[in-house]
Amino acid sequence: RMRYKGLIxxxxxxxxxxxxxxxxxxxxxxxxxxxSHIWYSKGTPNKMxxxxxxxxxxxxSVLYFARYIVTESEEDSLEIGKIITEKEYKLFKQLYGNxxxxxxxxxxxxxxxxxxNLEELRIELEEELEEVSSAQKRKKxxxxxxxxxxxxxSGNKPEWMILKNVPVIPADLRPMVQLDGGRxxxxxxxxxxxxxxxxxxxxxxxxxxxxxxxxxxNEKRMLxxxxxxLIDNGRRGKPVVAQNNRELKSLSDMLKxxxxxxxxxxxxxxxxxxxxxxxxxxxxxKMNQCGIPKKMALELYKPFIMRELVKRELATNIKTAKKLxxxxxxxxxxxxxxxxxDHPVLLNRAPTLHRLSIQAFEPVLIEGKAIxxxxxxxxxxxxxxxxDQMAVHLMLSPEAIMEAKLLMLAPNNxxxxxxxxPIAVPSQDMVMGCYYMTEKKxxxxxxxxxxxxxxxxxxxxxxxxxxxxxxxxxxxxxxxxETTAGLVMFNEILPIQDRNYQRTIGKKELKxxxxxxxxxxGFTETADLINKLKNFGYHYSTLAGISVGVEDLVIPExxxxxxxxxxxxxxxxxxxxxxxxxxxxxxxxxxxxxxxKTTDAVTKAMMDGxxxxxxxxxxxxxxxxxxxxxxxxxxxxRGNMADTQGRIIETxxxxxxxxxxxxxxxxxxxxxxxxxxxxxxxxxADSGYLTRRLVDISHEVIVNAEDCGTMQGIEVGDLISGGxxxxxxxERIRGRVLAEDLIHEGEILATRNTMxxxxxxxxxxxxGIKKVKIRxxxxxALEKGVCKKCYGMDLSNLKEIxxxxxxxxxxxxxIGEPGTQLTMRTxxxxxVASASAAITQIKSENGGRISFRDIHTLNLNGEEIVVSQxxxxxxxxxxxEVSSGSTLRVKEGDIIEEGTVLVTFDPYHIxxxxxxxxxxxxxxxxxxxxxxxxxxxxxxLVVKAMDSGDVxxxxxxxxxxxxxLGTYNIPYGAYMMVExxxxxxxxxxxxxxxxxxxxxxxxxGGLPRVQELFEARNPKGKxxxxxxxxxxxxNNRKKKGMRVVTVKALDDSGDQREYxxxxxxxxxxxxxxxxxxxxKITEGAISPFDVLNIKGLVAAEQFILESVQQVYRDQxxxxxxxxxxxxxxQMFKKVKIVDSGASLFLEDEVVEKRLVDLExxxxxxxxxxxxxxxPIIQGITKAAVNTGSFISAASFQETTKVLSNAAIEGKVxxxxxxxxxxxxxxxxxxxxxFSAYKNVAMKVQEEFGTELEAVEE
Length: 1257
Prior knowledge:
Helices cover 37% and strands 20% of the residues. By secondary structure, it is an alpha+beta fold. Among the domains are: 1-25, no CATH class; 27-66 and 104-168 and 174-255, no CATH class; 269-413, Barwin-like endoglucanases, CATH 2.40.40.20; 429-544, RNA polymerase Rpb1, domain 3 (Enzyme I, Chain A, domain 2); 550-660, RNA polymerase Rpb1 funnel domain (Topoisomerase I, Chain A, domain 4); 841-905, CATH 2.40.50.100; 913-994, CATH 2.40.50.100. It is globular, with a radius of gyration of 38 Å. The two termini are 41 Å apart. One of its GO terms (biological process) is DNA-templated transcription. Pfam families: RNA_pol_Rpb1_1, RNA_pol_Rpb1_2, RNA_pol_Rpb1_3, RNA_pol_Rpb1_4, RNA_pol_Rpb1_5. It comes from Fusobacterium necrophorum.
């Protein structure tokens, strides 16, 4: 019932009606002249210019009234679409009169667009494509053809890109509010609309009074600009600004960016029934509880309390109930206890980096105003109690409550989904208490006493007969065990079968213990046990009364002697440099290494000198707080520091914090410390953006089927980086599914499709199996998502993954969450430089017989020195590269065991060694002499000669008669160790090539490296790879001023490839070396694109996977392979069409592989020509913008571009991913919203709360 309905107000002539029309009734402005839509007339690729066939610049000149365009013509010299200037127009008008027409502005373009017949244009372009040969032109035509086809397919007409009317959005969406001062605050859109209306009205008037053309044109241009500003302000020309010089927010800006409609209101909404407050620790809580302040609970549960009050007849109606609650009446407190029973709340701590940042808890009412949090869930939330705040959310529907109870309660989140390791691990005080109680002490009170049972021992302990740490004997289960009272008490907590009376418990042991308990007993029991461990730890760390004083930092006696010895070594190195034995770079590196080793020695001396019960030592050793590195800085020496460029400073900091630093030392160290803080701030933003991109590319990956039936898989072995195994085979295959029967020496250990569990892992390790073929998301044959078998185990509960699990988002979170822990650069430890001791030897990783390949040696002082450039030592089937100047430690034909040292070498440089006696002669070699004042030394460096083009610097060794005995190629950047004309002996060093130092310019590490890999960028300083197997030939041929390296196939095919190596790039290969496809020719980083082209799809996928793992493992972060595999799978989803066959695809078009495969299937059935394609890599940003769903793409980046493209193509969004569904407000198709669970309902029994059973409808 509406009062005054249908009346018309006499003041403003508006009808009285419902307020809702202010949100739904649109108006429009009828334009006096057509204008172009800026989304289509500007931007790349420019849709309007493409379809007409003009250049974007020409189009702009016509639209904004700078040039004419011919629209009608009977004259041959003036074809339609020709652009002419004002002068030319006047001239042609005189010449041809009315035989042609030319216009300016959007009307002219409108006329041209209306002329276009899309079908004819398509046929014309397709014919043109057949004839054209040059790639440049083909690309152009293909671009145009794609747009024409899109228009045809969607049924859009090109002339619709020109606006004749501008719609006006409803009033409530561009509100005007009166401020208290009588002024108005208005939405920017009103200003923009006002400008359009003013100009439009002025234009109408001018047209009516037949104003001069020049005035009308100007007004039309202004109208065009006003409409442009309304749609997308600032896209062209200067943006329109308000009085205070602030850019006005146009319609496009309302959608774009973090504050736009998509990200601000559709993907992240504010919700009611939420609260936030500071958190404090609640050590007495159970694992599934949290403390909620009474006041907060009262407000949060308000409607529930009101309902209950009415139900209990404590209030007569809802209104009185509301009053009671608001006055916090005494009656309310009785009710509230019952209301919160069985109604958990969600706690969330921002930043929400992974799914463990939101967990459910049963509320417990407490006094005060702070939320209490269980100490063990802190690590999952990454929370501490220095003022962190958390948000509380209340679930409303019974379904939501049930879901939270079954899936989100804290005891269900003991294990991190990223790695399958426990995350609810006791820390700090709790670890301290457990460690203190389980440590043993020699010679403590009561040592050696024997007890007949545990009770007796504990009685003795309580009566202070024996000390906590005293070693005593006690009978347990009929056996005598040597243990301590503390250990016995600790073990009382554990189940009988899991007790161990020997081990001292630190953080690592606790983690392993929890993982083991979880494996054996499941969630509920483990949560209980963890809680008991917590109580034990807190109780006894309090009783232990551990404190730290400055006296506890004991500076080792030996420090003085170690420092003196180091100083002496450095003096010797300087002397070597002065006498010309080594070069400056070597001197620098050796000096650094001396100090690095000295620092380690001091640290060792310090640790050895400490008492086992020294509080600082106990903290560091147990893992409760701090580490050896920090202790070293406190009581050892601070060691090497880095300067502003990241180079390590030669003079280390010899003092520690207890002694205090000198002014100079303090100054040196302040750079590193400050950089650490700056890096952290930058890293957080970078890492968050990485997570966002990862989620956007992978959110649509859901477990969609039981088994896709593929026979493919990937073969995995140990992951090796820099000669170290960084991820063992066992870690990589745990919880994965076998792709084929596992056969060892003819015996079938397990059949295909078996999940690899603990028993099988043990067997694989015992049998020494090195490679296993497993199913992987990379090879999953499903069109969408992955299947259970290819994914394997759900790491968060160590069971088989369930259908409908959103594994894509979990993968993105697992990779993004540790992002903040990755370094920004290769180099970082709170400013303390850790120059890892250089690698000086190669050890064999397997046993077997030794053979050599391409190795030439010299015998010097009884040692075999390798003189060939790139030989290999082969042990059974493993190859190890050996550089020149190395010393061989094994003989050919030896049979060795695993771990034998094969060769040793100088870590800093590769020497070029003379293999003959004779006289040195330089050829085409330009040395650059440099003088080092500090040491009074000359050095000669080989540089590129400026004047001559082709040079090949080399050294000849001549005999007395001047006959050539040997030639040595010298790369640029090598240091000459002999003068021209000098006499050398066999085994002398002619030149030294510096090895590029670890942590030098070529190696991007940390977060930037992960981004580089996921974005599929070509790395800086990339290496050249061989494309075929074969033998290398290097002669002194030149092409274009570059050296030619040829690889010839070993068979008779005569296949060969030439590679042009720029002078100054360092070759890794040598003449006559055998190489395999994909081996490096020059030094540098490998590009994933090269791997894809040479070794194919699987190799490229594995390459990215392993490279990403290297970065994470280097930082000590465990992320399971399968998460990275899911992201990589998404990067390789698309293919590039090489030959479109009989299909409608275009050349060079990038299409989803599944679509091409479907099309090919149809073509094959009809017997037509198939589509040829090649795989491509798409970086995550590109893949996310080009995803199938336009809603998801628009909410990611480049919103306007995505939406304008979707409009032209008439795209349909099938709502397959998660984001699209969140945006339009549907249940996401994962978890309980998964299609297979559609017909599962829940019984709700009002009286007994919620029944936790699913019923088939």
